[in-house]
Amino acid sequence: MTTTHPAWPDAFAERYRAGGHWSGRTFGDLLRTWAAERPTTTALVDGDRRWTYAGLDADVDRLTRGLRQLGLRQGDRVVVQLPNRAEFVLLWFALQRLGAVPVHAMPGHRRTEIGHLLHVSGASACVIPDRHARFDHREMLLELLAGQSEGGPLRHVIVVGDPGHHRQFTGFDELLDETRGGLAHGILPDRQESGPASGDLALLLHSGGTTGLPKLIPRTHDDYAYNARAAAEICGLGDDSVYLAVLPIAFNFTLACPGVLGTLTAGGTVVVSPDPSPQTAFALIEREGVTITSLTPPLVPHWMNEAASGDADLSSLKVLQVGGARLPDDVARALGPALGVTVQQVFGMAEGLINLTRLDDSEALICTT
């Protein structure tokens, strides 16, 4: 099956490939290359769980086979509504390797938004937590399934945690279990005969707009991989970089500006924070030696207050990105000294435009733009 989406004009695609901006690689292939280059390096940390690059690649392979056995195929849309957990990263790369398209939803979305995303994307699957922030996502999906006409497109609900007993609910861990069904007998190949191409649709990002129902922004493997790589270069990321994912990973800022994908591209380590509170984040910064993270302006005063009153060792943290809204100049000036970091202001949008102050820009430029 070939995904359909508005293609990049040939002249632009040829120019970007000739200039070396687009690598012609899919995210599934990129992960395999990273795993071969740095198999024992820590790629992902979530609480007490840790993955090397090789371990991440192996689990993504297992999950890809599980998704294929479930019935997902190249081109299928999959609404992904997960909080910050390692499962988001595993699932995202497995969908890329399969050629299915993740449709990003925010953790706080509820029935109206999720129902809208399922409808406009024609998703055949949805991935949710069992419960998060005192909300039972399974009950929401049961209501949405009940409201779907017979034979509707949504066929599968994958649950991270307890899936319950509904026939259309599958536990995430079941998809990683190679002792079940066809996986145990080796009847499913590691890869499809024809997988996605680098110019294919890779994901549908949730829009950054503030009005109405969420819109979906198409991004290809080529252009989104460049987004992450270029941002990583501007931020000076390398194999000693440790990125803390504080904001939702489904957010473009957290995923690829440079975020999770930029850090993995550079050979660094991604640490997942289950919530954005400074108490949680500061403990992770100290424990994991975090070097860079990203916030929105409303979180900044809370982090500054905690830094002033707490005793966490934040000496490893070098860069603090702030984006998503305008940071007041006086707060920007106070932030660097308060946390002992270089502040980087970021303005971008899901459609692709991204602007970042450079780390060696003047204080005046960093604090006022």
TrEMBL record:
Residues 32-357 form the AMP-dependent synthetase/ligase domain. Pfam families: AMP-binding. PROSITE patterns: AMP_BINDING. Gene3D superfamilies: 3.40.50.980. PANTHER family: LONG-CHAIN-FATTY-ACID--COA LIGASE, NONRIBOSOMAL PEPTIDE SYNTHASE PES1 (EUROFUNG)-RELATED. This is AMP-dependent synthetase/ligase domain-containing protein. It comes from Microbispora siamensis.
